[in-house]
Structures are given as C-alpha cells and as structure tokens.
Amino acid sequence: MNPGNYRLVVLISGFGSNLQAILDACADGRLPAKVVLVVSNRKDAFGLVRAQRAGIPTLYFPLKPYRERGLDRTAYDRDLAERILPYRPDLIVLAGWMHILSSAFLERFPGRVINLHPALPGMFPGMRAIQRAFEAYRRGEIAYSGCMVHIVTPAVDEGPVLTHRVVPIYPEDTLETFEARMHEAEHQVILEGIRAALQMLSRSEQA
Ligand code: GRF
Question: Which of 58, 100, 114, 179 is the most exposed place for a label (fewest CB within 10 A)?
C-alpha cells in the first residue's frame, strides 16, 4: 500500500465522466490517490482522451482478438491482469466498464476491485439499469432508484456494498432528466466508494 498516495487503475468503456470525477478529485486533493493507468476495451472511449489530456498512461485492450483466435474470456481476463500488475495498483476501479470480469482476473487482486453500478443493491443488475429503473417507476413498481459502489465478485453487480445513494425519480422526469440526476450522484458516489475501499484496505494492512 502507498498510504496517502494510493495507486488507482481505472477501467472504462465509454464517455468517462466518472473517470473525470476521479481525476479531478485526485488533482485537487479530495482523494489521497493518483490514477496510474486507464484501461478501455473500446478504442473510441472518450475516457481515453480524458486520460491522455491528464498525462496518464492508457491501455486499449479489446476482447475481439481473443475471440478471433478462439480463446475464451478467461484468457482475456488473465492477460488483462498481467498487463495491469506492473502498475502496482492498490485499487482497481470499474467506472463504466462494460465487461464481466471472471475470477481469472479477480483472484489476482483479491478484495481490490470495485465497481460503480447505477442501481441500488439487489436492484437491476446488469445492462441498462438506469432505463430499466425508469420503466419500473413508470409502471408504479418503484418510487426511487439509486447507485452504489460494491466490491466485485464473479456474480454480476452483487458483491459487498461499500456505499450507495438514493436517486429520486419525479413524475415530470424524462429518461434524460432522470439519467442526468443519476450521473450527478454517481460522480460523488464513486469518490465515496474509493475512499471506503482505501480505508478498508488500509485497515486490513495494519491488522
Ligand atoms: C455510468 O452510469 C456507469 O454506472 C455505467 O455506465 C455509465 C458510465 O458513465 N456503468 P461514464 O463512462 O463514466 O461517463
């Protein structure tokens, strides 16, 4: 561990607004950490541009070449871990990462992989969680939604929860207005989740 200057590796797949929240918090001292690598499985992820602008190393690591060689996700996950290990991460943050990581990856970083998910614990695991919550609200099945940061286990979006926050939905909301409110909450919850994970790791190191 690097007390006070923890090393984060962030995995993204898209726009990277949560990555940006992390970069900003590291830059202005709200997070005692620095991002040492940003990984994307998609070449067009704008989050890679954000990392490059911040002078942070990036790694584009697509699954396609593995599939073309008839290799399975375990080979991809194992090699991805091998590429990340040299950066000596204290914590790996999945921020909009759209690939389910198997134990071939997770076992290399036990208890050190966390994920941001735009739904409350036990609600709407998997893809399109924001849209599915909005549709459930419209059907009168839920009164609100939320987002959480949890420790990643091989079960999708189900690991121990580090922090969560309720995000209200209003009758006048459109999917767009609800989604904007969700992302605004995520940009704070991702930081709370990282802080909680680092505190947990720090305590376990001292134990
Ligand atoms: C976020 O809603 C995240 O929870 C979900 O995908 C979105 C990523 O947003 N997995 P960004 O790429 O961080 O802007």
Answer: 100
